[in-house]
Specification:
single chain; mainly alpha; three-stranded antiparallel β-sheet; about 50% helix
């Protein structure tokens, strides 16, 4: 347990950190400190054990204890399953203990001199090949030292905001159409992530539009995916704002004076749906 480990600042930008709970972050760092930094062998109760760098033989209870106050065994079990999905570690369990292996431990925890030497050598090779053939992208890709892409293999945890938004849209659609086929919720989650990160939409705004469009007699038949919601986002916001500005309405069931020609008549909406729409309009986050 002597010595130290490297903790790269770039971890702050990785989904495995951003989407993790405080307990899961504590477990992640604790595991990095628990694994062996070099090959180790020992004998216990007549049996020989051996671990390689980046591995540790432990138990759920031991991990929870080392994490300290506030981390339960269930927290550890959930975190290990989640970290496996991200490709951060492998977890082999038996009836007595489990072997935890940090994937690519050697790449991130090499001695500083070794890592510097490797980077310098690789960069020299890259520069030499680029000078002789600048257009040869294949050679460039073979020799450049690149950071692993976090988006290609990204898996959204079921408790993450993007996944919960995807699940919310799916459940709302199912209320209107019980036969709607379950989509790829991971793909839907990524669409919602893009909506928040690239379009600067807030979670509150997205939740509001999901509920609003799936209670609207016209839009519930047209917004059947997050990509379509993203495309029509601004149009939907303008529609909601325009309807809210109409004050002198003789018929309480009439919500818009400029509704599309194929908009269903208000009489087709139930009283509960109308009440929900009124309440949503009063609380809209736009």
């Amino acid at each position: 347990m002597a010595g130290w480990i490297k903790l790269y600042r770039d971890l702050l930008n990785k989904p495995i950190w951003i989407e993790s709970s405080p307990e899961q972050k504590a477990i992640l760092i604790t595991l990095l400190m628990m694994v062996n930094h070099q090959e180790n062998e020992w004998e216990w109760q007549g049996k020989l054990y051996s671990v390689k760098p980046g591995q540790v033989i432990t138990s759920l209870d031991s991990i929870a204890q080392k994490c300290g106050k506030g981390v339960s065994i269930q927290n550890v079990r959930t975190a290990l399953k989640r970290f496996e999905k991200y490709g951060f570690l492998t977890n082999e369990s038996t009836n007595k203990n489990r072997l935890i292996t940090i994937v690519k431990w050697g790449f991130y925890q090499n001695n500083a001199e070794e890592l510097t030497s490797k980077l310098t050598g690789d960069q020299q090779k890259t520069n030499k090949r680029l000078t002789s053939n600048k257009n040869d992208k294949e050679l460039k890709n073979d020799n450049e030292v690149k950071k692993p892409s976090s988006r290609k293999s990204e898996i959204y945890d079921e408790e993450s905001v993007p996944f919960q938004l995807a699940l919310r849209l799916f459940k709302n659609i199912r209320k209107n159409n019980a036969g709607f086929k379950e989509p790829n919720l991971q793909k839907w989650s990524d669409d919602f992530r893009l909506m928040m990160e690239r379009d600067n939409r807030t979670e509150e705004q997205i939740v509001y539009l999901i509920d609003w469009c799936q209670q609207n007699s016209f839009w519930k038949a047209n917004i059947l995916s997050p990509s379509k919601l993203r495309k029509q986002f601004d149009q939907l916001v303008l529609k909601i704002q325009a309807e809210k500005q109409i004050k002198h309405i003789k018929n309480p069931q009439q919500f818009s004076l400029d509704r599309p020609s194929h908009w269903e008549e208000p009489n087709s909406l139930s009283k509960e749906e109308l009440d929900n729409l009124r309440k949503m309009e009063e609380e809209m986050p736009f």
